[in-house]
Each structure stands twice: as structure tokens, then as C-alpha cells.
Design brief:
Shape: elongated
Strand order of the largest sheet: 3-8-5-4
Largest sheet: 4 strands, antiparallel
Distance between the termini: 59 Å
Mean pLDDT: 86
Radius of gyration: 20 Å
Length: about 230
């Protein structure tokens, strides 16, 4: 008793009210009086998230927490072989950016800094429907992955985070389906989605798989300041 759950509550207090610098430092302090304290990995992950959010009173309204809930819901839905609840889906073009970023860009992955290495030219890309030129997204919403087959040509898929134009389809509760251009006069098939994941042409598996086909869009590169 008092090893994991109650220890986590004490650590949250130390981090928030006493402003102990990190969860690890708070745990070291707690173990001075209670050596057996050992929050489970899931609780420690939540403490790190709480610390990154600067210990807000209203946790549920924080974009970083909402993305964490979305990620957990996707993992749960994958195991249950069902689509995630629509109330958990975060449409990134509507979500406010993570306050920790100085450049105003959202930090998509709550566990890593995978987006920091983006090439400057890539960060200026827009993806437009090849038929009607409707904008479908830009490179700031890309889900990056490392190609397994480095000898292959450019990946045939552009994987994206959920965007507002996808809402009518992604909120239906289906495990997979097609993505059509949101322009009512076009409705061109531009991609597909699969909550269980999708294998890219390079061989890498991306979960969830929400992609537009590179052959279905035009890539527009914006100049500095445009």
C-alpha cells in the first residue's frame, strides 16, 4: 500500500505546489521518507505530462492533454478493433498550439521531438487537390515516419493528423474508409484512412493511417514570408 497510486498524488503535489523541478527530482525527495515509493510507468508518464503542461488547474482543457487522450484512445481502439470515439479525435487545424513552443507550431507527439528535424523547405509545403486545387493540408500536419526501404522511391502516401475537413468521415465510427476532396463540386478520391494502421509504400506501418495519395495532390512550396 502507498507504493504507486498514493505516491503519484504526493508527487503531483510536490511538482505543482512546491515547484520541485522535475518528477524525477520529486520522486528522489519522496523516497527519502518512503523508500518503497514506486509509481507505475503509466503514472510517471502522466506526471511528466502534468509537468510539461506547467501544472494547470484545468487539465482537461489543455491541448497537450487532449492529444494524450486521443493517443490513448487510438491505442485502445486498436486493441478493441473499433474506431475511436469521435469526442476524443483532435482535429489539429482547430486545436490551439502547445504553449511550450516558441514558434507557434503544435507539438504533435507528446512523447518525442520528432517534428523538430523538419527541413525548412518541407515545412513550407501545401497539399492541394490535383483536380480542383482545394487545400487539403500542409506539412506542419504531417505524421513523419522513417522509410524501411531506403532504396525505394518517394513514399506514395502523405500521412496527416486528423483535420477538420475529415470530420464528417472520421466521426462516423468506421474502422477504415475513403477520404474525398471536401469541395462539394469535386469529391475526388484523395486518400484513405484506417484506424488500425496502414502500410506505406516504403514498408513502414503507420498507426493510425490517415493519408492522402501523393499522386492525387499537387505539392506547392511557399516562399519565405508568403
Amino acid at each position: 500500500m502507498g507504493k504507486s497510486r498514493s505516491a503519484t498524488l504526493i508527487l503531483a503535489y510536490l511538482i505543482a505546489d512546491l515547484q520541485i523541478y522535475t518528477p524525477a527530482a520529486a520522486l528522489m525527495l519522496l523516497r527519502r521518507g518512503r523508500p518503497m515509493a514506486e509509481p507505475n510507468p503509466g503514472f510517471m508518464d502522466q506526471l511528466h505530462l502534468y509537468h510539461r503542461m506547467h501544472c494547470p488547474l484545468d487539465v482537461a482543457s489543455q491541448p497537450l492533454y487532449q492529444r494524450w487522450c486521443y493517443k490513448r484512445e487510438v491505442e485502445r481502439s486498436k486493441k478493441a478493433e473499433q474506431a475511436p470515439g469521435s469526442e476524443f479525435i483532435v482535429f489539429e487545424d482547430e486545436a490551439p498550439p502547445d504553449e511550450e513552443n516558441d514558434d507557434g507550431k503544435p507539438k504533435w507527439d507528446i512523447d518525442s521531438e520528432e517534428d523538430e528535424g523538419k527541413d525548412e523547405e518541407t515545412a513550407k509545403e501545401e497539399y492541394r487537390c490535383r483536380r480542383c486545387r482545394t487545400q487539403l493540408g500542409n506539412s506542419s500536419y504531417l505524421v513523419l515516419h522513417t522509410p524501411r526501404n531506403t532504396s525505394s522511391t518517394q513514399c506514395a502516401h502523405l500521412f496527416l493528423h486528423p483535420l477538420s475537413w475529415m470530420r464528417p468521415v472520421l466521426s462516423q465510427g468506421n474502422l477504415d474508409g475513403r477520404l474525398e476532396c471536401p469541395n462539394a463540386r469535386c469529391k475526388q478520391n484523395v486518400g484513405k484512412y484506417a484506424w488500425q494502421g496502414m502500410k506505406c509504400s516504403c514498408g513502414e506501418w503507420v498507426v493510425p493511417g490517415i493519408s492522402i495519395g501523393r499522386g492525387k495532390v499537387d505539392v506547392v512550396r511557399r516562399k519565405e514570408g508568403s
